[in-house]
Amino acid sequence: MRKISKNLFLFEDTCNVYVIKTGVTAVLIDFGDGKVLQHLGTIGVEKVTDIFMTHHHRDQGQGLPIAVQEGIRIWVPHIEQDLFHHINEHWQAREITNNYNMRQDRFSLLHSIPAYGTLKDYSTHVIKGISLTIIPTPGHTTGSISVIAEVDGKKRAFTGDLIYAPGQVWSMAATQWSYNGGEGIALSILSLLDVKDRKPNQLLPSHGQLMDAPSEAIDLLIERLTALMKQRNQNPRLFKLRENPYEAITPHLLMNNTSMSNAYVVLSESGKALFIDFGYDFISGIAAGSDRASRRPWLYTLSKLKEQYGVESIDVVIPTHYHDDHVAGMNLLRDVEGTEVWCPENFSDVLENPQKYDLPCLWYDPIKVDRKLPLKQNIKWEEFEFTIYEQSGHTLYAAAIEFVVDGKKILAIGDQYQGSSGESNYVYHNRFRIWDYIDSAELYKTINPDILISGHWEPVFVTEEFLQRIEEKGKELEQLHRDLLPLNQLDLGAEGFGAIIHPYQTEVYSGKIFSVTVEIKNPFYEEKEVFAKMISPTGWSVEKDEFKAKVTGMKTIQFTTSITVPLGTTGYRERIAVDLTVGEHHFGQHAEALVTIINQPALGGDQ
Questions:
Q1: Residue 582: phi, psi to the nearest 5?
Q2: What burial letters (b/e) apply to 88-107, b meaning 16+ CB within 10 Å?
Q3: Angle between helical axes of 436-447 and 464-484 (0-180°, round to 10)
Q4: SS3 461
Q5: What residues pair up with 50 in beta bridges, in sequence order?
Q6: Nearest CA-CA partner of 75 in 90, 88, 60
Q7: What mean pLDDT, rounded, does the chain reach?
């Protein structure tokens, strides 16, 4: 046990374990193999109350089962929580053969452990008088954090594996998050600059040496990482974008050039700002996989927004649709900036209850909606007025947002069209309907905006030619689908299913009851009898396992039933289904839903 200062100690194990004394108790940063517990008596510590994990790698916490037995509170990075308390499921789902996912998420615990809580980015935790602030520092892993705390009169930054020594890192392989990618290199640079800006007196890494000259150590590492990034011809605009992340479309309308999907800022003369969409701020590429630990929202560019444009508060954020690259950072905005989420009423429920829906690109946590915005009504915010329109196409759950800024009529359209080409951007599983692009073309023609702002393309200055082109393409798209699908006989929609189960995902305690609602469509043009039979695992009890009714052609009907899970049952994503017959046509098991049986409260939390 090495003494760093009066109340701060280092124990060298499979990683550096830092012990912050709080009288006869202590807080640990990382845990290693757990051998530190055998040596605490030498420094007068009787009990460890809390462990803060900087990231999920096995050398950081392979001894955590011992901590569980000792009743120590284990705190884990919010982004990486599933790699602690759901790692068993991750091991079962992780691709191995024909693997192009180079993230080191298999360098994780071998078995799940219960976490006491999650460490949300930018949050502060006070334990026995010690304030520990959580800083997002992706680089070594997507979800890595650093912990900044003042101990014995010095500002200390516990940086995990972000830096090993002046100019060095513990692992370069860990920074490669996709096949032949270098995503973690650029994000390491951004994280190092953020840590440097916070002016710590000392850097304390998970592996390597303590650094008492943080700026010099960081500068040397940035110099070397930049050289490698340049050699790989990756992220050439990184430093320029860090200095100037926002571009003015008009004096009071900005576009964030660093985000995965474009986020837009409406600037009020009051000093308040309104965001349209806010997903992944400042990305350097997309990590392989789509598990929670592969996606990292943060608030990296907000300081520049405030500094360069006089923004005093991020007042409101409005999404154009529910996809993660447009909403992932909204919980962070609320938690850190006090931002209100205003959402169009036609997809507010998707944000607040994502588990109910079988849709692509859902964010992992519910996003509380502070105000549900009615369609086709004027919405006042500061000196601006917004009008929200339903806009199906890219997804059924989307909106177009009209407003005037600096004398220009703007229409924010999310991902509806692919830039100035006007190519439709539909995804069947987003509940695409074949006439959607006729509707949106007609909407645009009626509004006649000056500028379209979209999720992944440059602003489009609208012309009559553009409006005519998207109208023609919309009609052509519908006709092609009418030719391709047997719509003269039956219409199951472009997605091709006759039933849906809500909610799509359920968590239930063993021995308890849950309910589902089944929506059935008669896809024929004349009235038919629909017959639905519930399919469930052996031993489960279904209150109403069969349903029969006459349904008018092309109409839907719903029924609700309760299902009891036998006591003592466990399972992850157990399947239930609906076997559907309409008239004489047996469609089979057209809808499924997933049920996870839990024996203790699930770990929760927004971000």
A1: -125, 115
A2: eebbeebeeeeeebbbbbeb
A3: 160
A4: strand
A5: 27, 73
A6: 60
A7: 96
* pLDDT on residue 598: 87
Cα–Cα distance, 362 to 182 (Å, whole number): 26
- 602 has a pLDDT exceeding 50: no
How far lies 63's CA from each of 33, 60, 236, in Å?
4, 8, 41
Cα gap 131→143, rounded to integer Å: 21
The helix (run of H) or strand (run of E) holding residue 188 is helix 183-197
- Strands of 145-151's sheet in order across: 124-127, 130-136, 145-151, 154-160, 202-205
Read off the pLDDT of residues 236-295 as tens digits, 9 standing for 90 and up: 999 999 999 999 999 999 999 999 999 999 999 999 999 999 999 999 999 999 999 999
Residue 606 is predicted with a pLDDT of 41
Q: What token pair was written down for 75?
A: 């705190």
Amino acid at 453: I
| Token pair in block for residue 151 | 């101990």
Burial track 7-43 (b if 16+ CB lie within 10 A, e otherwise): bbbbbebbbbbbbbbbeebbbbbbbbbbebbeebeee
Contact call for residues 223 and 216 (beta carbons, < 8 A): no
Gap between the Cα atoms of 163 and 140, Å rounded: 9
Paired sense of beta strands 451-454 and 408-414, if any? parallel
Residue 473: helix, strand or coil by DSSP?
helix
Paired with 219 in beta bridges are none
What confidence tier does 600 reach under pLDDT thresholds 50, 70, 90? low
Give the mean model confidence (pLDDT) for residues 480-508. 95
pLDDT above 60: residue 507:
yes
Nearest to 567 by CA among 510, 509, 508: 510
Burial of 405-426, coded b for 16+ CB within 10 Å and e otherwise, reads beeeebbbbbbbbeebebebbb
- Bridge partners of 505? 594
Quickly state the pLDDT bin for 605 (edges 50, 70, 90).
very low
272 token code pair: 């308040």
3-class DSSP state of 467: helix
Alpha-carbon dihedral angle through residues 17, 21, 22, 23, given to the nearest 10 degrees:
140
Q: Which amino acid is at 306?
A: K
**Which tokens go with 520?**
């059935």
Mean pLDDT of 11-17: 98
Cα 431 off chain centre by: 21
pTM of the predicted model as reported, rounded to 2 decimal places: 0.96
Write out the two tokens for 313. Answer: 């508060």
The Cα–Cα gap between 94 and 300 comes to 30
Q: Per residue in 382-414, pLDDT tens?
A: 999 999 999 999 999 999 999 999 999 999 999
How far are the Cα atoms of 139, 217, 471, 590 from residue 208, in angstroms, in the given order? 17, 12, 62, 56
551 with 499: CB under 8 angstroms?
no
CA distance 282 to 77: 19
Q: How far apart are the first and last CA of the chain?
A: 36
